[in-house]
């Protein structure tokens, strides 16, 4: 996006205005669900918070969710990957779900084997 000096603003200010609505939406969603959802590497995607420690091959206490703040067509397949400093690519079971109403719900997501989930620091989504 580019605005000329005649239009009353610099292109830097215009870009800041362009990104504010998305950030506001992200802030609103996180404040509506405190402790339930966390930011990801993408500004338009949030996901469920994971327990700090969980035994391998056990179902999570609640269904893991990926929520899109942008428009995603219903029926889109969503596949997740996980890792940390110890294991950059954990082995997951049931790591694919279908997007419906901007939410992909993973009912039986499991970390298999030595996924590195036992360490609470350095999780990547």
TrEMBL record:
Pfam families, A to Z: Runt
Gene3D superfamilies: 2.60.40.720
Single annotated GO MF: DNA-binding transcription factor activity, RNA polymerase II-specific
Entries under InterPro entries matching the protein: AML1_Runt (IPR000040), p53-like_TF_DNA-bd_sf (IPR008967), p53/RUNT-type_TF_DNA-bd_sf (IPR012346), Runt_dom (IPR013524)
Keyword Transcription regulation: yes
Localization terms from the record: Nucleus
SUPFAM superfamilies per UniProt: p53-like transcription factors
Domain Runt: 25-125
Annotated PROSITE patterns: RUNT (PS51062)
Keywords: Nucleus, Transcription, Transcription regulation
GO cellular component terms, A-Z: nucleus
PANTHER family membership: RUNT RELATED, SEGMENTATION PROTEIN RUNT
Name of the protein: Runt-related transcription factor 1
Species of origin: Caerostris darwini
Chain's gene name: Runx1
């Amino acid at each position: 996006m580019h605005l000329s000096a005649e239009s009353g603003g610099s292109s830097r200010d215009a870009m800041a205005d362009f990104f504010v609505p998305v950030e506001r939406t992200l802030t609103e969603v996180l404040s509506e669900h405190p402790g339930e959802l966390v930011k990801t590497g993408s500004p338009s995607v949030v996901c469920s918070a994971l327990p700090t420690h969980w035994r391998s091959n056990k179902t999570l206490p609640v269904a893991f969710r990926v929520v899109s703040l942008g428009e995603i067509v219903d029926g889109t397949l969503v596949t997740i990957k996980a890792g940390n400093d110890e294991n950059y690519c954990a082995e997951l079971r049931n790591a694919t779900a279908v997007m419906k109403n901007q939410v992909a719900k993973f009912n039986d997501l499991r970390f298999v084997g030595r996924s590195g989930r036992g360490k609470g620091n350095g999780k990547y989504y």
